[in-house]
Design goal:
By secondary structure, this protein is α/β, with parallel strands linked by helices. The protein has helices at 2-24, 52-69, 86-95, 135-150, 164-167, 184-190, 193-211, and strands at residues 30-35, 73-76, 100-107, 118-122, 154-159, 173-180. Helix 4 (135-150) links the parallel strand 4 and strand 5. The longest helix is centred in the N-terminal third of the chain and has 23 residues, at 2-24.
């Protein structure tokens, strides 16, 4: 009798473990969207005088609305021009037990106004990552669809182990660098409503391909 009870307790413990594990690491359809920078931190200042923080927020809000209209639960790390600590951004995503974390940024290069294109940053899987071995898969899927949607140059996926929003999140996490504000043509595109929607469409399709 005692042996049967022990086996039953072990069985229940295993079930509870997997329920908790799956619940924490992403069976939900919650997506956290993180508009990079904000408040006293403008991010990159474009060749046309545009602040990266503003473009990040505009694209993030469009992404938020589109995902919500498709039935996803979506959380923004900031909704206005406010300063948000990167640790807070990661902790918010962890607290929400998000399925994925997508941070929106724009790129720039000093003394180089010719480089353009979309790039995605992710935490390298081989580092025993804090979040998930699917980071590279997610990065590739989103980049592929963003390039199809925008016809932008492919700047590839890049490993970054030093960024808090990538190494402190406990779910697949990426940073989408939507374009180069140091490039005049791309800086103009990034403030264009239609082009922003193209970027959003690509990100959404990549997320759908990953989550399904």
């Amino acid at each position: 009798m005692r042996r049967k009870i022990t086996k039953f307790v072990v069985f229940i413990a295993i079930i509870v473990f997997f329920i908790i594990k799956k619940g924490y690491f992403g069976t939900s359809n919650i997506i956290v969207i993180d508009p990079g920078h904000g408040g006293h931190d403008p991010g990159t200042i474009g060749i046309n005088g545009t602040y990266e923080k503003d473009i990040n927020l505009e694209i993030s809000k469009k992404l938020y609305e589109k995902l919500k209209s498709m039935g996803y639960k979506v959380v923004l790390t900031r909704k206005t021009d406010e300063s948000v600590d990167n640790i807070f951004r990661a902790k918010l995503a962890n607290r929400k037990r998000a399925r994925v974390f997508v941070s929106i940024h724009c790129n720039a290069l000093e003394d180089n106004n010719s480089t353009n294109g979309i790039q995605i940053l992710y935490y390298p899987n081989r580092k025993g990552c804090a979040n998930d071995p699917d980071n590279e898969v997610l990065a590739n899927l989103v980049l592929e669809q963003a390039l199809i949607s925008t016809s932008a140059e492919n700047k590839g996926i890049v490993e970054r182990e030093d960024l808090i929003v990538l190494n402190q999140t406990k779910m697949p996490a990426i940073i989408v660098e939507c374009g180069f504000l140091s490039n005049g043509s791309e800086a103009s595109l990034l403030i264009d409503d239609e082009y922003q929607n193209m970027v959003v469409d690509g990100i959404v399709e990549g997320l759908r391909n990953y989550i399904k």
